[in-house]
Amino acid sequence: MLGTIGIERVDELFADVPADVRYPDLHLPPALAEMEASKHLASLAAQNISVREWPCFIGGGAYNHYAPSAVGHIMGQPQFYTAYTPYQPEVSQGTLQASFEFQSLVCDLLGLDVANDSVYDGASAVGEAVLMAQRLTRRERVVLAGSVHPQWRQVVQSYVAARDVAVATANVRNDGETLSEPRLLDLVDEHTACVVVQQPDVFGHVRDFNGLADAVHERGALLIITTADATSLGVLKTPGDWGADIATAEGQSLGLPLQFGGPWAGLMACKPEYVRQLPGRISGQTTDHEGRRGFVLTLQAREQHIRREKATSNICTSQTLLAIGITAYLSLMGPSGLREVARQSHAKAVYAADRIAALDGYRILTPRPFYNEFLIATPLLGPAMRHHLVGSKILGGVPFLHHEAGFENTLLLAFTEQNTRAEIDLLVAALAEVAA
Amino acid sequence: MGQNPADRRYTIEHEWIKVEGEHYIVGITAFAQDQLGDIVYIELPKVGDRVESGKTFGVIESVKTASDLYAPVSGEVVEVNSELVDQPQTVNDDPYSAGWMIKIRPEDSTSVERLLTAAQYSEQTGE
Amino acid sequence: MTAAERVAPATPLAPGQKVEPLLSELSRPGAPSHQLPALDVPPAEDWSSQLLRTELPLPELGELDTVRHFTHLAQRNFSIDSNFYPLGSCTMKYNPRVNEDVARLPGIAHIHPLQPDETVQGALRIMFEMQQLLADITGFAAATLQPAAGAQGELAGMLMMRAYHLDRGDTHRRKVLVPDSAHGTNPATAAMAGFVTVSIPSDGNGDIDLRKLEAELDDTVVGLMLTNPNTLGLFEKQLREVTAAVHRVGGLVYGDGANLNAILGVVKPAEMGFDCLHINVHKTFSTPHGSGGPGAGPVVVSKALEPFLPAPMVVQRADGSFALDFDRPKSIGRLKGFQGHFGILARGYTYIRMHGGEGLRRLSETAVLNANFLRALLKDDYDLAYDRSCMHEFVLSGRRQKTAYGVRTLDIAKRLLDFGIHPPTIYFPLIVDEAIMIEPTETESRATLEQFAAVMQQIAHECAETPDVVRESPRFQVVGRLDEVTAARKPILRWPRGNFGQSVT
Fold it and tell me: Which residues of chain C neighbour B89 with C-beta distances below 8 Å?
């Protein structure tokens, strides 16, 4: 090979690299053989408690729903996971058709007629939706409900930070008895691009958005509805039903492993008239020269590789493999399966709430109805509660609001179809120990 | 490539401007549509919008490119060729007539005289 | 039964070759869905009907038909596992299987991002060590693992540069310089971060034009976004002069790490004047591309930018334990719902640990050697965009084939499909006419490279002798060239609403 190239040593190929910094020392640990690496990683993995070992009541944007075994095997097909972006449609029909199917399912789940092939996650989907609303309305201000996931609100802040956009948040207050949220519409003015709400909200409350879309539209703004646990869409009214202009969701609940935070997939849909401002990849149906049905990446002129600084977003990848997993999950579950997941998750949460409400020192703060998650007032600080539950071998609850005034003694608990009655009784008993 | 009609003026951004009474009609040239290839989408301003000379007033897309449309003069949009929304290929088929884009009421009715003649434009595009 | 009455044999086409119906078309009402255990608590319907949806239009297939459908779809893809895939700028190297085993361990795959730190010490240790490994490989002070992909890494970098300038009271910087050979994500990111981009031309050697760069440098410059090796596969000859010039006016230099695979262990970007750099774990560190994603886009930064890294970071406490640190007052905030694509990072970590420093250097040398070998084999049949030795990839131009025979680069790409080869990246970088960008990676054998070169040479001859064969390709795929114009003019982006169990073609 060297002779063909016309050199004697490989390092001649690096002549353009400044000599004084060429071939630096790397301080990496010595290379491991595959067998050693396997063992090393297995030992590191064993230092984590998985949600398969202990009962898990943690939600807050990621949920321990069950994924049928076939989902992982479908995502594990090497001709999906070792392929790349379908730049050559003739040899990427598998990916492109799966993306088209995913888009169709997202449309039906969210009740809108156009969807993309996913963005990074539920949080960045809200960020992208807000930027999209700003382009569509040519307005800058953003109104966020305080009942939107706090970490998602932080992502929105990062996405709009560079534009010096005012973000108004309707902060939720906890008086120890109930939660109260100021009227969102009072924050909307003639500079407001969009109003962002979450369903079920971050406290698990299923909101009645009747009239909200009309009121937002009257003020010339757009309504964005986002969802953290997408299984709720198996029973609840869709964002489209509520009149949302753009809807987003975290797709993790639909068959994707928790993986300590990702990769998952952000779902994003909108009204058809806004498709040119929708970011991300989109697969479209067409035909070949012989009239055979096929699929291509379409509306690409929106994207960064063509529009460069005028693109709708800088996003370049989609979460296609995860989108394939979600598509497989929805196909395996069908309408009855997804509805059953939602009903069981809800029933387990109601069962737990009734028991926790009866304990001394506890109170259910989330108003009814809730879906599968609710906030409780606790006798100890949130982190201390959680630490106590670890002592009982329970992965229990999220204290991520504990640093906000009024929320120090709270814990967010989530339930899925995987939580057995025995597990819930164990949780209630462990909570009771603290009360006593 | 077809002749550039002599009854109108041109810009180096490949737009043509035809005077019709007190209004200017604006489109893109045969050269421009040929460079773009099959046009798939056109975004135009709304009636009543103000366009500003040298600033973008719309976007034209083919499958693999997107180009801004630049206003040749400043003025108010009085009419938009809404048929292009559903039939963008009209710009490919008939750029100088049915493929017109917007009609402007210019702020300065002499502004068109500063633009290129058909002969000057043809020279620019090397025809 | 007579012969005529017998069921016709299946078509000789493999299952993946037939038209595959959509899930909606395959749907059969009443097909068995996945079964949950019986509910073990009292049923509850604790809500009014006005909160509920009235229909749930999902397909019904059951497990076997679902698995078959996706198997058929998978068979309609080219992939690294089935085809040579020299897609320039994408580093389509083999994805080692052990990484997949690691990612599926329960202690990796099934841990919740909001678990108490004491229950995820192994995961936090992987992240902490990964931060250190990436910082060491690139020569920087610190790393964030949060960005989801390269483009989000770029956004993180731009927001940190913005925060750095503002923190110094430097409020008037607006201009981001981007070479004309850059990926489209660079200008798109700069725009997202609220900046104005200025394109800097390349010179006759494919390097950034230093004089034209200097003409744009002033105290309004946020910084320069630079890919090195650049998208032409060339190592910038005057890199230090370039970075020094930007620093002289108070600007910062952002590195697009798309092409890091060429220089692992060869040079540390921080030592050439970069202030931050994103890393594509799915390129350089072998994690699967997943039909277009997921990736992971960690960002490494200098000491000066460290305070602005996104929160949370993974830290090691005095007692040796690991924790997520949210207490970062100058941080640009959060870009992801949680702490990054851990499932991808764990694979990349495994890959780095299996290579060590020496192994990484060897892999980059092999990647560069393979690219130069292919370049030497192809330089007579195609025009070279720039005639100098390349890094891990190189760019050919199909201009000879276009001018002499009327065969476009797109046709050459489609003809490669007939030989079972995934085409290189085409029509990028934009500054090369009829560009063909080839990146073989280090994982391909000499025999594969020679075979690819032989096919490319044959196609070059076909362009001259039987150009229609090239122009009418591909001929052996499940579909021919598709009508992208109609797809964009009259977009069909979903199956017809509620149309289950019926074919729509």
Answer: 489
Bridge partners for C221 per DSSP: C175
In chain B, the DSSP E strands lie at: 9-10, 15-20, 23-28, 39-43, 50-51, 56-62, 66-70, 75-80, 102-106
Q: Does B118 touch chain C (CB under 8 A)?
A: no
Q: What percent of chain A has a predicted confidence (pLDDT) above 90?
A: 89
Judge whether A330 is closer than 8 Å to chain C, CB to CB.
Answer: yes
C265: buried, middle or exposed (CB in 10 Å: 19+, 13-18, 0-12)?
Answer: buried
The burial of A76, by beta-carbon neighbours within 10 Å (0-12 exposed, 13-18 middle, 19 or more buried), is given as: middle
Question: Which of B33, B38, B59, B86 best probes binding to C when mutated, by most C CB atoms within 10 angstroms?
Answer: B38
* Cβ atoms of residues A136 and A202 within 8 Å: no
Q: Burial letters for C276-301: b for 16+ Cβ neighbours within 10 Å, e otherwise? A: bbbbbbbbbbbbbbbbbbbbbbbbbb
Strands A293-297 and B9-10: unpaired
Nearest to B64 among A276, A306, A310 (CB): A306
pLDDT of residue A295: 98
Q: Of C45, C107, C340, give the one whose Cα is nearest residue A48.
A: C107
Owner of token pair 């002798």: C465
Chains that contact C by 3+ CB pairs under 8 Å?
A, B
- Determine the average pLDDT of the residues in A203-210: 96
Neighbouring CB atoms inside 10 A of A290's CB total 7
Whether C53 sits inside 8 A of A157 (CB atoms) is: no
How many A×C Cβ pairs under 8 Å?
662
Q: Enumerate the residues of chain B whose CB falls inside 8 A of the CB of residue A300.
A: 63-64
Judge contact between C111 and A260, C-beta under 8 A: yes
Q: How many CB atoms lie within 10 A of CB C104?
A: 15
Nearest to C24 by CA among C505, C503, C347: C503
Show Cβ contacts of residue C501 under 8 Å, excluding neighbours closer than 6 positions: C24, C25, C27, C28, C29
- Under an 8 A CB cutoff, do A327 and C23 touch? yes
Q: How far is C487 from chain B (nearest CA, A)?
A: 9
Q: What is the pTM of this model?
A: 0.96
Whether B93 contacts chain C with CB within 8 A: no
**Most A CBs within 10 Å, among B39, B63, B65, B69, to test the A interface:** B63
Q: How far apart are CA C443 and CA C377, in angstroms?
A: 18
DSSP string, C195-238: -EEEEE-B-TTSSB-HHHHHHH-STTEEEEEEESS-TTS---TT
Q: Which amino acid is at C17?
A: Q
What is the DSSP secondary structure assignment for residue C185, as one 8-state letter? H
Q: How far is B114 from chain A (nearest CA, A)?
A: 30
Q: Which range (A11-25, A307-321, B75-89, C278-292) has the least confidence?
A: A307-321
Give CA separation, A13 vs C159, C234, C262, in Å. Answer: 36, 11, 11
Question: Contact C489/B40, CB-based, under 8 Å?
Answer: yes
Mean predicted confidence (pLDDT) in A170-181:
88
Comparing CA positions, the residue from A247, A194, A179 lying closest to residue A401 is A179
**Which residue from A minimizes the CA distance to B60?**
A301
What residue has token string 């069909």?
C492
| Tens digit of each residue's pLDDT (9 = 90 or more) over C270-284 | 999 999 999 999 999
- Residue C132, both tokens: 């250190």
**Pairwise CB contact (< 8 Å): B40 & C427:** no
Long-range contacts of A32-35 (CB under 8 A, 24+ apart): A32/C353, A32/C354, A32/C356, A33/C354, A34/C96, A34/C98, A34/C354
The one-letter code for the residue type at A390 is V
Is the minimum CB–CB distance between C492 and chain B shorter than 8 Å? no
Q: How far apart are CA A19 and CA C14, in angstroms?
A: 55
